[in-house]
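WARN no homologs supplied; continuing
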Amino acid sequence: MNRMPVLLLLILLAAALQACNLPSSQPAPAADAVFTAAAQTIEAELTASAPGETSTPEPPTATATLLPDEPTSTPAASATATSLPCNAASFVSDVSIPDGANILVGQSFTKTWRLRNSGSCSWNASYQLVFKSGESMSGPASKPLTNNIIAPGATLDVSVDLKAPASPGTYKGFWELRDPNGSTFGLSSGAFWVEIKAVSATPQSPSIPGWPTVKQGDESAEVYALQQLLRFHGAGIAADGKFGPQTFTAVKNFQTNKGLASDGIVGSQTWSALIQGAQATQGATGEHVRAIQYLLKNKFGSGINVDGIFGPQTAQAVKDFQTQKGLTSDGIVGPQTWQALVAFP
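OK structure emitted
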């Protein structure tokens, strides 16, 4: 349809309406409205695209429509920390008695584990080390874990005194920890353990001489070791390597306590009594360890410190000495190693 006649009619209609109005100081609202509508229509027609041309419509305004269950905003993502259990432990190392260590049948020893508090609660004296299963090896059913506060992330050396069974064989005992509420917990992989091989006493190596005899007036490395062993058993004497009156009295008192002839002379029976309970391995500390270190250093030329702490250097020195004397090189100072250390070269 041709739009030009329509336009002319609209223009004429607007003019007629304007002419029909009586003169007035204010234009009639209706006529103004008609005129305005006609003008807008004309403007729209004149600006419309000519036939054959393509007009570009304005893009529609996008209106977001929310689904009923869709949130109006998405909160910022936040990292969620993994919560730790109150009680948890992780294994760090065997401080003493590695798995499979040879222990003489009936021999006492101390097993020490190094554990880490990997939970969120601190350990204290209300926590206990408890036997779980396997071979108890004469160990206690339970014992206090520590007298200190072990905070989360800290490590603790946990020890228990045990005894190798009377029959040769491999023995393994499992242990756990117990909290103040009576709940037990171990490692993430389960309980931790001690495993030994109980072995029969072997004939004394020909390379080990018998126990030496020391008496008042002597001065030697053996006397120093004697004094440290007496101190280990509670004697309040100095260790200077000189067998004086105080050492003589201490020896006589020790012999009396052990039911031995109280003559103040240290022979094989007194030496054997002195080393009872003095077995030592890595992790041990005390006067008996000082005796071992002093003998290794001053009799056999080992370059270790005499500090009473059985650390890795002392352990290696003991193994080297045992190899030299034809003994089992396990780093444990038991009766045979003691005798080899104390005996006169």
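The two ends are 134 Å apart (CA to CA).
OK
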